[in-house]
Design a protein that fits this description.
307 residues; 40% helix
C-alpha cells in the first residue's frame, strides 16, 4: 500500500456500527476516529434509555452521524443490513461500506489505508470483494492474525506488524470489513437467520463463491475486543480465545452446524470446525466454573442446527 492513505477522501464511505448496551468510551473513540466526511450510521439493538440518551448525544455531537433505534434486539446481521439500507437511502454516491462492532477502535488513518488498499487492488485488476485490517486484541495486545486455507489445512497468518503487502485470506472478521456497496447489493446482504456468530464466516464464503477475493491489510490496525472477554493461551506461540456465555455458545454451535450443511462452504473449514467444536466443549468441561450451563447451551445449539 502507498503513503497516500492520509489524503484519501472518504465522502463516498458509509460506516455501520451495531450497538447493544455499548461501552461509552470505546464507541466514542471509534466514531471520533472515523473520517469526518463519511456517513456514520449507528444501529442500536434495544439498549436502555440511559444508553440511548448517550447515543443520541453522540449523533448530535459527531458530524455526519445518525442513530437508528430498534425497540428490541433484531440480531447483528439484520441490524447491519438495516444500517446499510438506511445509509444508502440517506446519501447518494456512496461507494464503500465499512462494518464495525461497537467496541472496535481504528487507529488514526487506518480507515483511509483500507480505502486506499481496496482501490489499489481494483486498479491492479483484482476482482476484490472485501478487505480487512489487522485486529489487535485490546486486553492482550496480540494480533488475531488472518485466516487462510489450503486444501487440507486451516491456519492463521501473522505478517510482520504494519507490513505493507496485502494478505490473501479465506475469511475476514466482520468488524473492520470494507466492501463495495455494489457487492452488498449483488449478494443480498448478510444472512439474518444466523442472528449472531459466524455471520462474517458465511459472508466470506459467499463472497468467495461469487469469485471475489478477500484481502487482509496489516498496515491498517484496529483495536478490537473479541467476545465478552478474552483468554490468552500458549500453543506453539501466544494466542487469544474469546470467552462466550452459554447463550452465545448455543448460537455458535447451531450456526456451525448450519454452515456444515451448505455446499459453498469449503470442506477444509468444515473439518476444522467440527474439531474446534469438540475442543471448545472439552475446554469448557475442564475449566469453566459454569460447565453445566455451558455444555447445555452447546448441546441445545447442536440440536437446533440438526433440525
Amino acid at each position: 500500500m502507498t503513503d497516500r492513505a492520509s489524503f484519501v477522501h472518504a465522502d463516498d464511505l458509509l460506516t455501520v456500527t451495531v450497538s447493544f448496551h455499548p461501552e461509552q468510551r470505546a464507541l466514542l473513540a471509534q466514531l471520533e476516529t472515523l473520517p469526518m466526511e463519511c456517513l456514520k450510521v449507528v444501529v442500536d439493538n434495544g439498549s436502555n434509555e440511559i444508553e440511548l440518551a448517550f447515543l443520541r448525544q453522540l449523533a448530535d455531537r459527531i458530524p455526519n452521524t445518525v442513530l437508528v433505534e430498534n425497540a428490541a434486539n433484531v440480531g447483528l446481521a439484520a441490524a447491519i443490513n438495516q444500517g446499510l439500507r438506511y445509509g444508502l437511502a440517506a446519501r447518494d454516491g456512496l461507494r464503500w461500506c465499512l462494518l464495525l462492532d461497537q467496541d472496535t477502535e481504528p487507529e488514526s488513518g487506518a480507515v483511509e489505508i483500507l480505502l486506499d488498499g481496496i482501490r489499489e487492488l481494483q486498479r491492479e485488476g483484482d476482482a476484490v470483494g472485501c478487505v480487512g485490517p489487522s485486529l489487535v486484541n485490546v486486553e492482550t495486545g496480540l494480533s488475531h492474525g488472518f485466516h487462510q486455507a489450503t486444501r487440507f489445512r486451516w491456519r492463521r497468518a501473522y505478517p510482520a506488524p504494519r507490513s505493507r503487502g496485502p494478505i490473501r485470506c479465506t475469511t475476514l472478521n466482520g468488524s473492520g470489513t470494507l466492501m463495495p456497496v455494489s457487492l452488498f447489493k449483488d449478494l443480498g446482504g448478510l444472512d439474518e437467520r444466523l442472528f449472531i456468530d459466524h455471520i462474517d464466516t458465511e459472508w466470506s464464503f459467499r463472497v468467495l463463491a461469487a469469485r471475489r477475493t478477500l484481502w487482509g491489510l496489516p498496515q491498517a490496525v484496529f483495536h478490537h475486543r473479541m467476545g465478552e472477554r478474552s483468554l490468552r493461551y500458549w500453543l506453539f506461540g501466544w494466542r487469544v480465545m474469546p470467552y462466550r456465555s452459554p447463550p452465545r455458545h448455543r448460537y455458535l454451535f447451531r450456526n456451525t452446524v448450519w454452515l456444515l450443511r451448505r455446499a459453498y462452504v469449503p470442506a477444509v473449514w468444515k473439518f476444522w470446525a467440527v474439531a474446534k467444536l469438540g475442543l471448545t466443549m472439552a475446554a469448557y468441561l475442564a475449566f469453566s466454573k459454569e460447565r453445566r450451563q455451558q455444555v447445555a447451551g452447546m448441546i441445545s445449539g447442536l440440536g437446533a442446527g440438526l433440525k
